[in-house]
Amino acid sequence: MSHHRSVTTSNALMTKFALCSPKLVIYTGQSEDNDVAQKFIDMLEEDIKRIYRDCLNHPKFKSVEKIFTESDEACFNAATECYVCGGV
């Protein structure tokens, strides 16, 4: 049985909250030892953190009413089963 590993990855993260146009990011491993899948996850996490920081610091988003209220948080914390699947 053969074993295949990713050698390159690319993504362009698009969100309505991004304050700039998405850019295509391409990563190609330099050797068989490079974990391209992990590098993809690491780059994705950094993009998400950047978008989150940008939104927190942008005046447009500072004035937005809080969607998840204290009452919502209390209900969430008191829940004993999953709303989506009904599991515990």
Tell me about this structure.
There is one protein chain. This protein has helices at 36-57, 59-62, 70-78, and strands spanning 8-11, 25-28. By secondary structure, the protein is mainly alpha-helical. It has one domain (8-78). It has a two-stranded antiparallel ribbon.
Primary descriptors:
88 residues; mainly alpha; two-stranded antiparallel sheet; flat
Question: SSE layout and pairings?
Answer:
Elements: E1 8-11, E2 25-28, H1 36-57, H2 59-62, H3 70-78
Antiparallel strand pairs: 1-2
Question: How is the main sheet built?
Answer: 2 strands, antiparallel
Terminal CA distance: 39 Å
The assigned structural class equals: mainly alpha
The number of distinct β-strands equals 2
General form? flat
Q: What is the string of helix and strand elements?
A: EEHHH
Q: Counting H and I runs of at least 4 residues, what is the number of helices?
A: 3
User: How helical, in percent, are the residues?
Assistant: 25-40%
Structural domain count = 1
Could you name the ranges where pLDDT drops below 50 across 5 or more consecutive residues? none
Strand order of the largest sheet: 1-2
What percentage of amino acids are in beta strands? 5-15%
Using the CA coordinates, give the radius of gyration: 19 Å
Mean pLDDT: 79
Give a brief description:
By secondary structure, the chain is mainly alpha-helical. The protein contains three helices and two strands; from the N terminus they run E-E-H-H-H. Strands 1-2 form a two-stranded antiparallel sheet.
